[in-house]
Design brief:
Elements (H helix, E strand, L loop, with lengths): L3 E7 L6 H8 L3 E5 L5 E6 L3 H17 L5 E7 L6 H23 L7
Antiparallel strand pairs: 1-3, 1-4, 2-3
Helix pairs in contact: 1-2
């Protein structure tokens, strides 16, 4: 099955960009798009394989004391409005970030 996935990774130190490429580089193109955000465009990968790789990457980051939020947007056909897909991934990333703060009891304040 051919699909295209877009996910964004937040709160990742620059040094860990290589780990992101190592995990997803086989089927994706990964880019640093901001200070602590990365975007990976992936194709020719099954959804369950991608989910396993996200878990693997999060585990690697935890081992290195790095907190990371992930947002995933999936397109079965590999086509569609890329801006809409990226927006969905970003929204999902922020939801993951909120869940992290709620689970840990850490307060995130924006001043």
């Amino acid at each position: 099955q051919e699909g295209m996935i877009v996910y964004m990774l937040g709160k990742v130190k620059e040094a860990y960009g290589e780990q992101i490429k190592e995990v997803f580089g086989e089927y994706g193109k990964c880019f640093r798009i901001g200070g602590d955000e990365f975007l990976c465009l992936c194709s020719n990968v099954e959804r369950d394989e991608l989910d396993r790789d996200i878990i693997k990457l999060k585990g690697n980051m935890i081992e290195n004391s790095v907190n990371m939020s992930v947002g995933l947007a999936w397109s079965e056909t590999g086509s569609g409005d890329i801006d809409k897909i990226i927006s969905e991934a970003e929204k999902n990333m922020y939801e993951d970030k909120i869940a992290y703060y709620e689970a840990t009891g850490i307060e995130k304040r924006i001043i």
